[in-house]
Protein backbone atom coordinates (compact mmCIF):
# COMPACT_ATOMS: atom_id res chain seq x y z
CA UNK A 1 0.00 0.00 0.00
CA UNK A 2 2.91 2.34 0.59
CA UNK A 3 6.62 2.52 -0.06
CA UNK A 4 7.84 4.44 2.97
CA UNK A 5 7.00 6.82 5.77
CA UNK A 6 9.20 9.78 6.63
CA UNK A 7 9.10 11.38 10.08
CA UNK A 8 10.88 14.57 11.04
CA UNK A 9 13.42 14.83 13.83
CA UNK A 10 15.34 17.70 15.35
CA UNK A 11 17.91 15.43 17.03
CA UNK A 12 19.02 12.41 14.99
CA UNK A 13 21.22 10.97 17.75
CA UNK A 14 18.27 11.02 20.15
CA UNK A 15 16.00 9.55 17.46
CA UNK A 16 18.54 6.78 16.80
CA UNK A 17 18.56 5.78 20.48
CA UNK A 18 14.75 5.68 20.36
CA UNK A 19 14.17 3.97 17.00
CA UNK A 20 17.00 1.40 16.83
CA UNK A 21 15.59 -0.92 19.54
CA UNK A 22 11.97 -0.46 18.45
CA UNK A 23 12.62 -1.16 14.79
CA UNK A 24 14.77 -4.17 15.69
CA UNK A 25 11.94 -5.55 17.86
CA UNK A 26 9.46 -5.10 15.01
CA UNK A 27 11.79 -6.82 12.53
CA UNK A 28 12.87 -3.78 10.52
CA UNK A 29 16.67 -3.75 10.11
CA UNK A 30 18.78 -0.63 9.82
CA UNK A 31 18.82 0.26 6.13
CA UNK A 32 20.99 3.35 6.33
CA UNK A 33 22.43 5.95 8.66
CA UNK A 34 23.92 9.21 7.57
CA UNK A 35 24.18 12.85 8.54
CA UNK A 36 20.65 13.90 9.49
CA UNK A 37 18.92 10.67 8.40
CA UNK A 38 18.04 7.18 9.65
CA UNK A 39 16.44 4.48 7.53
CA UNK A 40 14.87 1.18 8.56
CA UNK A 41 13.50 -1.65 6.43
CA UNK A 42 14.57 -3.39 3.24
CA UNK A 43 15.59 -1.70 -0.03
CA UNK A 44 12.71 -3.24 -2.00
CA UNK A 45 10.25 -3.32 0.93
CA UNK A 46 8.45 -0.86 3.16
CA UNK A 47 10.68 1.58 4.94
CA UNK A 48 10.73 4.19 7.70
CA UNK A 49 12.95 7.25 7.41
CA UNK A 50 13.60 9.62 10.31
CA UNK A 51 15.36 12.79 9.26
CA UNK A 52 15.85 16.52 9.48
CA UNK A 53 13.29 18.28 7.28
CA UNK A 54 14.56 19.10 3.79
CA UNK A 55 13.51 22.74 4.14
CA UNK A 56 15.84 23.21 7.13
CA UNK A 57 13.00 24.29 9.41
CA UNK A 58 12.08 22.79 12.76
CA UNK A 59 10.48 19.32 12.62
CA UNK A 60 6.98 19.32 14.10
CA UNK A 61 4.54 16.45 14.61
CA UNK A 62 1.35 16.43 12.55
CA UNK A 63 -1.94 16.65 14.40
CA UNK A 64 -4.06 13.62 13.53
CA UNK A 65 -1.13 11.75 11.95
CA UNK A 66 0.47 8.56 13.21
CA UNK A 67 2.43 5.63 11.86
CA UNK A 68 1.15 2.17 12.86
CA UNK A 69 3.51 -0.79 12.74
CA UNK A 70 2.25 -4.37 12.49
CA UNK A 71 3.34 -6.54 15.40
CA UNK A 72 3.36 -10.34 15.21
CA UNK A 73 1.92 -10.77 18.72
CA UNK A 74 0.37 -8.92 21.62
CA UNK A 75 3.57 -9.55 23.58
CA UNK A 76 5.51 -7.59 20.95
CA UNK A 77 3.02 -4.71 21.28
CA UNK A 78 3.67 -4.72 25.03
CA UNK A 79 7.45 -4.74 24.46
CA UNK A 80 7.16 -1.93 21.87
CA UNK A 81 5.37 0.25 24.40
CA UNK A 82 7.89 -0.51 27.16
CA UNK A 83 10.91 0.07 24.89
CA UNK A 84 9.49 3.35 23.66
CA UNK A 85 8.99 4.66 27.20
CA UNK A 86 12.43 3.43 28.28
CA UNK A 87 14.11 5.20 25.35
CA UNK A 88 12.59 8.68 25.65
CA UNK A 89 9.06 8.21 24.31
CA UNK A 90 5.84 9.18 26.04
CA UNK A 91 2.65 7.21 26.53
CA UNK A 92 -0.33 7.99 24.29
CA UNK A 93 -2.33 4.83 25.04
CA UNK A 94 -1.26 1.76 27.00
CA UNK A 95 -1.28 -1.68 25.38
CA UNK A 96 -4.71 -3.23 25.26
CA UNK A 97 -7.67 -4.36 23.25
CA UNK A 98 -9.54 -1.77 21.23
CA UNK A 99 -12.67 -3.74 20.30
CA UNK A 100 -14.31 -0.67 18.72
CA UNK A 101 -11.94 -1.31 15.76
CA UNK A 102 -12.45 -5.09 15.74
CA UNK A 103 -12.56 -7.83 18.41
CA UNK A 104 -8.86 -8.78 18.18
CA UNK A 105 -7.38 -5.30 17.71
CA UNK A 106 -4.58 -5.03 20.30
CA UNK A 107 -2.52 -1.86 20.16
CA UNK A 108 -0.39 0.65 22.00
CA UNK A 109 0.35 4.30 21.19
CA UNK A 110 3.44 6.38 21.98
CA UNK A 111 5.08 9.60 20.93
CA UNK A 112 8.75 9.63 19.95
CA UNK A 113 11.05 12.29 21.46
CA UNK A 114 10.11 14.70 18.62
CA UNK A 115 6.39 14.26 19.24
CA UNK A 116 5.60 11.95 16.30
CA UNK A 117 2.78 9.56 17.20
CA UNK A 118 3.48 5.86 16.68
CA UNK A 119 1.55 2.69 17.24
CA UNK A 120 2.20 -1.03 17.30
CA UNK A 121 -0.81 -3.21 16.56
CA UNK A 122 -1.54 -6.93 16.50
CA UNK A 123 -4.69 -8.10 14.72
CA UNK A 124 -4.49 -11.69 15.98
CA UNK A 125 -6.31 -13.24 18.92
CA UNK A 126 -3.07 -15.00 19.90
CA UNK A 127 -0.91 -13.50 22.62
Describe this structure in words.
This protein has one domain: 2,3-Dihydroxybiphenyl 1,2-Dioxygenase, domain 1 (Roll), CATH 3.10.180. The chain has a four-stranded mixed beta sheet with strand order 1-4-3-2, with helices on one face. α1 runs antiparallel to α2 (about 75-85). The mean pLDDT is about 95. With about 130 residues, the chain is an alpha/beta fold. It is built from two helices and eight strands, in the order βαββββαβββ. The radius of gyration is 14 Å and the shape is globular. The longest helix has 14 residues, at about 10-25.
Please provide a brief summary of the model.
This protein is 21% helix and 35% strand.
Question: What's the SSE blueprint?
Answer:
Layout: E1 4-8, H1 12-25, E2 30-34, E3 37-41, E4 47-51, E5 66-70, H2 74-86, E6 90-97, E7 106-111, E8 117-122
Parallel strand pairs: 1-4, 5-8
Antiparallel strand pairs: 2-3, 3-4, 6-7, 7-8
Helix pairs in contact: 1-2
The name of the CATH superfamily reads: 2,3-Dihydroxybiphenyl 1,2-Dioxygenase, domain 1
The span between the termini is: 26 Å
Please name the CATH architecture.
Answer: Roll
Main sheet makeup: 4 strands, mixed
One letter per element, helices H and strands E, the order comes to EHEEEEHEEE
**How many helical elements?**
2
Number of strands: 8
Based on the model shown, name its key terms:
single chain; alpha/beta; 2,3-Dihydroxybiphenyl 1,2-Dioxygenase, domain 1; 2 helices
Amino acid sequence: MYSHITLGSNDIARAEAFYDPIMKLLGHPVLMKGPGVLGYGLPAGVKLFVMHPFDGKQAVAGNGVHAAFAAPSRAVVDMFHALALTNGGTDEGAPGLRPHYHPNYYGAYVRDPDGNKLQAVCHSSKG
